[in-house]
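Question (not urgent): is this output format expected?
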Amino acid sequence: MTRTRQPEIAAQDAWQAYRRLQLLVDAEVARDLERESGLSLPDYEVLSAVVAMSSGEHCIRVGQLTARMGWAHSRLSRQLGRMERRGLIAREPCELDGRGDDVLLTDSGRQAHATATPAHLASVQRHLTSLLTPQQLDALIGIEQTLSDRR
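Got this back:
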């Protein structure tokens, strides 16, 4: 009986470990980021995605940003509204076809991202990457690639 339950127990333990790891690291990084830059973790994630997409995209639409970030459309819309009110991003009609809005980084948003990036990187290193061996990091990357390839 123990042999048939062992994979189930291992799967449940793995799921619990994943959830604890995500919550623990996200909470630590969010706390550091807020203290060092005044940005929330969602603020930083949106700014980072917009910066990355700005290099090759003419129009950064909310739908494209949603797909890149893996967030629900409603969650991203609310986050963009909060960031727009704080002057970090702006939304303007797309010049290419007039359909939908572009998400644009403001000067304040660009500066906030530039200021927050070193704090973010240091926090990720402090709470995750420096604590793992190169083999553990490779395994973590491999797990993410395996799951992403299924999408």
